[in-house]
Amino acid sequence: MKNKKTIVGSVAIIIIFVVMILIGYKMENGESDDYTKASVSEVMNKKKETSVKNNDNKEINAQIFGAVKNPGVYSLKGNSMVKDLVNSAGGFSDNADKFSINGAAKVLDGANIYVKAQGENVNKAVANNTNGNLTLTSNNTNDEKLDINTATVEDIVNKKIKGVGEGIAKKIVDYREKNGGKINSVEDLQKAIGKKRGQDLMEYVNIN
Protein backbone atom coordinates (compact mmCIF):
# COMPACT_ATOMS: atom_id res chain seq x y z
CA MET A 1 0.00 0.00 0.00
CA LYS A 2 2.86 2.22 0.92
CA ASN A 3 4.56 1.43 -2.40
CA LYS A 4 1.40 2.38 -4.30
CA LYS A 5 1.28 5.76 -2.54
CA THR A 6 4.94 6.29 -3.37
CA ILE A 7 4.35 5.46 -7.04
CA VAL A 8 1.27 7.72 -7.24
CA GLY A 9 3.19 10.54 -5.59
CA SER A 10 6.10 10.13 -7.99
CA VAL A 11 3.79 10.14 -11.01
CA ALA A 12 2.06 13.28 -9.71
CA ILE A 13 5.41 15.04 -9.30
CA ILE A 14 6.46 14.03 -12.81
CA ILE A 15 3.16 15.30 -14.27
CA ILE A 16 3.50 18.61 -12.42
CA PHE A 17 7.09 18.93 -13.64
CA VAL A 18 6.09 18.26 -17.27
CA VAL A 19 3.21 20.76 -17.04
CA MET A 20 5.55 23.41 -15.66
CA ILE A 21 8.01 22.80 -18.49
CA LEU A 22 5.23 23.15 -21.10
CA ILE A 23 3.95 26.36 -19.51
CA GLY A 24 7.46 27.79 -19.41
CA TYR A 25 8.02 26.86 -23.07
CA LYS A 26 4.79 28.55 -24.18
CA MET A 27 5.57 31.65 -22.16
CA GLU A 28 9.04 31.80 -23.65
CA ASN A 29 7.66 31.50 -27.20
CA GLY A 30 5.06 34.16 -26.50
CA GLU A 31 7.72 36.57 -25.28
CA SER A 32 9.84 35.77 -28.31
CA ASP A 33 6.92 36.55 -30.65
CA ASP A 34 6.26 39.81 -28.85
CA TYR A 35 9.93 40.72 -29.09
CA THR A 36 9.97 39.91 -32.82
CA LYS A 37 6.88 42.03 -33.45
CA ALA A 38 8.37 44.90 -31.45
CA SER A 39 11.63 44.66 -33.41
CA VAL A 40 9.83 44.75 -36.79
CA SER A 41 7.75 47.73 -35.66
CA GLU A 42 10.88 49.55 -34.51
CA VAL A 43 12.63 48.97 -37.86
CA MET A 44 9.59 50.23 -39.81
CA ASN A 45 9.37 53.37 -37.67
CA LYS A 46 13.06 54.07 -38.21
CA LYS A 47 12.61 53.71 -41.98
CA LYS A 48 9.71 56.18 -41.92
CA GLU A 49 11.74 58.65 -39.86
CA THR A 50 14.68 58.34 -42.26
CA SER A 51 12.40 58.90 -45.26
CA VAL A 52 10.90 62.05 -43.70
CA LYS A 53 14.36 63.39 -42.82
CA ASN A 54 15.64 62.76 -46.34
CA ASN A 55 12.66 64.61 -47.82
CA ASP A 56 13.19 67.51 -45.41
CA ASN A 57 16.86 67.77 -46.39
CA LYS A 58 16.12 67.69 -50.13
CA GLU A 59 16.51 71.10 -51.80
CA ILE A 60 13.93 72.34 -54.30
CA ASN A 61 13.77 75.42 -56.52
CA ALA A 62 10.62 77.47 -57.12
CA GLN A 63 9.78 80.81 -58.74
CA ILE A 64 7.51 83.49 -57.33
CA PHE A 65 6.48 86.73 -59.02
CA GLY A 66 3.74 89.34 -58.98
CA ALA A 67 2.91 91.27 -55.80
CA VAL A 68 5.93 90.29 -53.69
CA LYS A 69 8.86 92.48 -52.67
CA ASN A 70 11.61 90.47 -54.36
CA PRO A 71 10.29 88.28 -57.22
CA GLY A 72 12.61 85.53 -58.38
CA VAL A 73 13.72 81.90 -58.09
CA TYR A 74 14.47 80.61 -54.60
CA SER A 75 15.91 77.42 -53.09
CA LEU A 76 13.84 75.87 -50.32
CA LYS A 77 13.72 72.73 -48.16
CA GLY A 78 11.69 69.83 -49.53
CA ASN A 79 8.88 70.24 -46.99
CA SER A 80 8.37 73.98 -47.63
CA MET A 81 4.97 75.60 -48.12
CA VAL A 82 3.92 78.51 -50.34
CA LYS A 83 4.09 80.89 -47.36
CA ASP A 84 7.79 79.96 -46.97
CA LEU A 85 8.40 80.92 -50.59
CA VAL A 86 6.63 84.25 -50.02
CA ASN A 87 8.84 84.91 -46.98
CA SER A 88 11.95 84.08 -49.03
CA ALA A 89 10.85 86.75 -51.51
CA GLY A 90 10.72 89.36 -48.75
CA GLY A 91 7.01 89.03 -48.10
CA PHE A 92 3.94 90.44 -49.83
CA SER A 93 3.91 93.87 -51.43
CA ASP A 94 1.61 96.42 -49.78
CA ASN A 95 -0.94 95.99 -52.57
CA ALA A 96 -0.87 92.17 -52.64
CA ASP A 97 -4.05 90.13 -52.70
CA LYS A 98 -2.95 87.64 -50.04
CA PHE A 99 -5.95 85.42 -50.68
CA SER A 100 -4.97 84.77 -54.31
CA ILE A 101 -2.66 81.98 -53.15
CA ASN A 102 -2.88 79.06 -50.75
CA GLY A 103 -0.11 79.69 -48.24
CA ALA A 104 -0.49 76.23 -46.70
CA ALA A 105 0.05 74.39 -50.00
CA LYS A 106 3.25 72.38 -50.37
CA VAL A 107 5.71 73.73 -52.93
CA LEU A 108 6.96 71.21 -55.49
CA ASP A 109 10.28 71.45 -57.27
CA GLY A 110 9.88 73.77 -60.27
CA ALA A 111 6.67 75.41 -59.01
CA ASN A 112 5.75 78.79 -60.53
CA ILE A 113 3.77 81.00 -58.13
CA TYR A 114 1.96 84.21 -59.09
CA VAL A 115 0.64 86.62 -56.45
CA LYS A 116 -2.12 88.94 -57.65
CA ALA A 117 -2.36 92.60 -56.66
CA GLN A 118 -5.56 93.85 -55.04
CA GLY A 119 -8.18 94.55 -57.69
CA GLU A 120 -5.96 93.16 -60.44
CA ASN A 121 -8.05 91.93 -63.36
CA VAL A 122 -5.80 89.41 -65.07
CA ASN A 123 -6.13 85.75 -65.90
CA LYS A 124 -3.14 84.67 -63.83
CA ALA A 125 -3.78 83.23 -60.39
CA VAL A 126 -2.55 80.45 -58.18
CA ALA A 127 -5.04 77.65 -57.60
CA ASN A 128 -5.53 76.44 -54.05
CA ASN A 129 -4.07 73.01 -54.72
CA THR A 130 -1.34 70.94 -53.13
CA ASN A 131 1.56 72.15 -55.25
CA GLY A 132 0.84 75.83 -55.77
CA ASN A 133 1.80 75.67 -59.44
CA LEU A 134 0.71 78.52 -61.68
CA THR A 135 -2.62 77.93 -63.36
CA LEU A 136 -4.88 80.09 -65.50
CA THR A 137 -8.30 81.23 -64.38
CA SER A 138 -10.81 83.65 -65.83
CA ASN A 139 -12.03 86.89 -64.25
CA ASN A 140 -14.48 87.63 -67.08
CA THR A 141 -15.69 85.99 -70.24
CA ASN A 142 -13.30 88.02 -72.43
CA ASP A 143 -10.33 86.41 -70.66
CA GLU A 144 -11.47 82.88 -71.41
CA LYS A 145 -9.74 82.93 -74.79
CA LEU A 146 -6.02 83.46 -75.22
CA ASP A 147 -4.73 86.22 -77.51
CA ILE A 148 -2.64 84.17 -79.92
CA ASN A 149 -0.65 87.22 -81.03
CA THR A 150 0.62 88.12 -77.56
CA ALA A 151 0.74 84.69 -75.92
CA THR A 152 4.11 83.19 -75.04
CA VAL A 153 4.95 79.49 -75.25
CA GLU A 154 4.36 79.27 -71.50
CA ASP A 155 0.97 80.99 -71.78
CA ILE A 156 -0.18 78.50 -74.42
CA VAL A 157 1.06 75.48 -72.46
CA ASN A 158 -0.52 76.73 -69.22
CA LYS A 159 -3.87 77.03 -70.98
CA LYS A 160 -3.85 73.22 -70.84
CA ILE A 161 -5.52 72.69 -74.20
CA LYS A 162 -5.90 69.04 -75.10
CA GLY A 163 -3.28 67.97 -77.64
CA VAL A 164 -1.34 71.23 -77.36
CA GLY A 165 1.95 70.90 -75.53
CA GLU A 166 5.24 72.76 -75.60
CA GLY A 167 6.11 71.54 -79.11
CA ILE A 168 2.89 72.88 -80.68
CA ALA A 169 3.16 76.10 -78.68
CA LYS A 170 6.68 76.69 -80.05
CA LYS A 171 5.45 76.13 -83.61
CA ILE A 172 2.77 78.80 -83.14
CA VAL A 173 5.20 81.35 -81.68
CA ASP A 174 7.91 80.57 -84.27
CA TYR A 175 5.43 80.97 -87.15
CA ARG A 176 4.21 84.27 -85.71
CA GLU A 177 7.73 85.65 -85.34
CA LYS A 178 8.72 84.61 -88.87
CA ASN A 179 5.65 86.28 -90.36
CA GLY A 180 5.78 89.84 -89.13
CA GLY A 181 4.97 89.02 -85.50
CA LYS A 182 1.29 88.44 -86.18
CA ILE A 183 -1.11 85.64 -87.00
CA ASN A 184 -3.85 87.26 -89.07
CA SER A 185 -6.34 84.45 -89.57
CA VAL A 186 -7.28 80.87 -88.79
CA GLU A 187 -5.58 79.96 -92.07
CA ASP A 188 -2.26 81.27 -90.70
CA LEU A 189 -2.77 79.21 -87.57
CA GLN A 190 -3.49 76.13 -89.67
CA LYS A 191 -0.28 76.69 -91.62
CA ALA A 192 1.62 76.73 -88.35
CA ILE A 193 0.20 73.60 -86.71
CA GLY A 194 -2.01 71.83 -89.24
CA LYS A 195 -5.53 72.30 -90.54
CA LYS A 196 -7.54 70.30 -88.00
CA ARG A 197 -5.52 71.31 -84.95
CA GLY A 198 -5.60 74.95 -86.02
CA GLN A 199 -9.38 74.84 -86.39
CA ASP A 200 -9.82 73.11 -83.02
CA LEU A 201 -7.57 75.66 -81.33
CA MET A 202 -9.87 78.54 -82.32
CA GLU A 203 -12.20 77.47 -79.52
CA TYR A 204 -9.55 78.58 -77.03
CA VAL A 205 -7.84 81.57 -78.69
CA ASN A 206 -8.57 84.95 -80.22
CA ILE A 207 -6.89 86.39 -83.31
CA ASN A 208 -6.74 90.17 -82.84
Question: How would you portray this structure in words?
Answer:
Helices cover 47% and strands 13% of the residues. It has helices spanning 2-57, 82-88, 153-158, 166-178, 186-193, 195-201; strands at residues 59-66, 72-77, 112-115, 124-126, 134-136, 146-147, 205-206. Among the domains are: 59-115; 146-206. The chain is of the alpha/beta class and 208 residues long.
Task: Give a quick set of tags describing it.
single chain, 208 residues, 7 strands, alpha/beta, 3-stranded mixed beta sheet, two-stranded antiparallel ribbon, RuvA_2-like
Q: In a few lines, what is going on in this structure?
A:
This protein has helices at residues 2-57, 82-88, 153-158, 166-178, 186-193, 195-201, and strands spanning 59-66, 72-77, 112-115, 124-126, 134-136, 146-147, 205-206. It is α/β, with parallel strands linked by helices and 208 residues long.
Sheet with the most strands? 3 strands, mixed
Q: Which of globular, elongated, flat, extended, rod-shaped describes the shape?
A: elongated
Question: How do the helices and strands follow one another from N- to C-terminus?
Answer: HEEHEEEEHHHHE
- Structure class: alpha/beta
Strand order of the largest sheet: 2-1-3
As a percent range, the share of strand residues is 5-15%
Proportion in helices: 40-55%
Total strand count, please?
A: 7
The chain-level mean pLDDT equals 75
Rg (CA only):
35 Å
Q: How many helices does DSSP assign?
A: 6
Uncertain stretches: 124-143
- Kindly report how far apart the N and C termini lie: 123 Å
